[in-house]
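INFO  loader      accepted 1 record
INFO  loader      residues=154
INFO  predictor   begin
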Amino acid sequence: MSFSCNFSARARKQLAGLALLGTGALMSFSAVAADARNDAYQKEREACLSGASHQDRATCLREVGAARGEARRGNLTESQSYDGNASQRCNALPPADREDCIQRVRGGGTVSGSVEQGGIYRETRTTVIAEPPPPSAPPPAYEPVPVVPPAAPR
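INFO  predictor   done
INFO  writer      dumping tokens
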């Protein structure tokens, strides 16, 4: 089966023009994305150099460089995957604790601490009413013991 395309010269010129416009639009989009990545890199680098990152400078600059490389490869993800990752961490817990974990991840309970302080602590409190103890056995029955008066001295 063969196809033949007989386009007029005018149609070929129009197709070539559309292809050129599409290529230009694609190139400008990728240039805008590269500019956005570069802007983010510069802001993060400035935070490292000013000490606003709460990390030592060498570690901060190394991480910023690594993030820039991952962004160029398209491997950086947004916060949507953050929520999914948090829920996946809850799956490692026993079923009895899993629901509480998911509730904490979704913002339930109280939150304290910060990344700068070494971690974020999320807490939920669940009040559990203790079951009453089983009834105790009745005290043993004692038989009365006769009291014998002491013997008189001889």
